[in-house]
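thread from #wetlab-drylab

HS: before we spend reagent money on co-crystallization trials with BES, can we at least see a predicted complex? here's what I'd submit
DV: go for it
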Amino acid sequence: MTALTLSTAAAPGLRADAIVIGVAKGAASTSGGLVVAPGAEAVDKAYDGKLAGVLETLGASGAEGEVTKLPAPAGFKAPLVVAVGLGAEPEDPKDGAYDGEALRKAAGVAARALAGSKKAAFALPLGDAGDVGAVAEGVLLGAYAFDAYKGNGNNAQDKKKNGKAPLAEAALLGGKPRDKEHKAAIERATAVSEELNRARDLINTPPNDLNPESFAAIVSAAAKEHGIKVQVLDEKALTKGGYGGILGVGSGSAAGPRLVKLTYTSSKAAKHLAFVGKGITYDSGGISLKPAGHNETMKCDMSGAAAVFAAVVAAARIGLDVNVTGWLALAENMPSGSAVRPGDVLRMYSGKTVEVLNTDAEGRLVLADALWAASQEKPDAIVDVATLTGAMVLALGNRTFGVMANDDAFRSAIVEAAEEVGEASWPMPLPEHLRKGMDSPTADIANMGERMGGGLVAGLFLREFVGEGITWGHLDIAGPAFNEGGPFGYTPKGGTGSAVRTLVRLAELTASGDLG
Ligand code: BES
Ligand code: MN
Ligand code: ZN
C-alpha cells in the first residue's frame, strides 16, 4: 500500500513526481469561476498568482472528480502539477472549511490518476486533524488496485501490460509530523484503509479460490496477528450445535460452511458491540438458481462478512476501548443433490423452524443463526451487514445502503455515523403488516414473503432471530458493496469495502460513550 508521511516541506523544493493541488468552483462572489484552494499558495505564487486563469484556459472548472495536469512552474523540483476538483467552494473558504468527504474523494481521484508514479506531494486544504485523516484515507483507498490475477505473476512484462502500479508514496504537505492529533489521524486512517482494502481483496477474489474454509483460514491468520481471539465452527461443530440455517445453505456445496467468531477485548471497555456479516462466498441461488445476468458478480455476496472482519481488526489496531465480537456466517450457495430444496424445513440454531420457499433467500438463513449466536452473549447492541436483497438496490440505487433497526434512535445513530465517515445510507422502516406474508402452513416462518418491499421483509425476518431486549441494526449493502461501473472518488471498480468505515465509527462512538 501507499506509504504516507506528514511533511512541512515547501512545494518548490520538494522532490516528487507530482504536486497535487485542489481547485473548486468558486462561490457566488467569484461568479462561479475556478478558484485555487488553500494549501496551493506556493504553486499559485510561482505562476504569478495566475494559476486559476491558466487552469481555466486548460478547460478546468473545479468540478468534483476533475483532473487537470500541467507542467510545474520553473524552479520546482517536481515536474508536474495535478489539479483535482473539489466541487463547490464552501461559503467561507478559509482553511479547513472544505468538507471531509470532498477532500477524501479528491485525494482518491488524484491518487488513482497518479498510478505508476513513485511519489506525490498532496497540497490540499488541511484544517484540522480530521482533514488530515480524510486526505490520508482518500489516498490509501483511491490508490487501491486488484491485480492478483493479471498476468501470470512470474512475467513482469505481462503484469506491466495489465496496469500501472499504485502510487508508492504520498507526502501530505501542511501536515504536522509532530502534532499528536495529526499523527493519530494518520494511524487511524492507515489501520482503517489497510483493513478496508483487505476486505476489497477478499470480495474481488474469485469464488473458486475463496470458499468458507479458505476465508476462515485467512481471517484466522490475520486476527491472530492483532491479538484477536478466533473460533471457527466447522460442519461437525455446526451440526453438533444445531446451526440448521448455516448448514442448510451450505449443504449443496462441496465446500462446507463455517461460522467464524472474532473476539476483540479491551481492558478499559464498558460496552460490548457485536457485528454479524453475511458471508456467502458465491450465491448461485441454489436450487432456485439465478438466471444468467444475475450471477456474474455473486462472488460479492460475502461483502458483509468481509466488512465485519475488517472492522474488528481495525478496532483492534486502533486499540478502541470497547469489546467487539465479529460473527462471520460463511457458506457457498450451490445447487446439487445434497442442496436444500424449496419446501424443506430447517430447524434453526434458535430452535425456530423455517420453511425454505426460495433457496435464493439464503442470506437471512445464515444470518439468523449468527444473530442468535451473537445474542447469547447479550451484547449492548448487534449490527449485521449483508448484501441481502435486490429490492434494496431497486429502492436506493447502487451507492446507498439501507438501514433498519428495532430501535428508532439506534437507526438514526447508524445513519449519522455513516454520514460522518462519508458513507451514503438511508433509514428504512420495518412495517409490521409485512410479517404475515412470511406465515408458513408448516413451519414457524417462511424465508420469503411479499415481493413488494422485499428488503424490509428480509429485515423483518432477521428481527425474529435477535435476542429479546437487544438493540439491533441491519445494513443492507446489496447496492454499494460491488461497483460494476467505472471508478469514482476513492471507490474502485469491483469490491468497495462498503460499511467498514461505518462499523469502525460505531465502535468508536460506543467506546467514547456516545452511543447507546
Ligand atoms: N445475494 C442476493 C441479493 C443481491 C442482489 C446482492 C443483487 C447483490 C446484488 C440475495 O441472496 C438474493 O438472492 N435475494 C433475493 C431474495 C428473494 C429470493 C426473496 C432477491 O433479492 O431477489
Ligand atoms: Mn440469494
Ligand atoms: Zn445472497
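DV: The longest strand covers residues 272-283.
HS: ok that's useful, forwarding to the group
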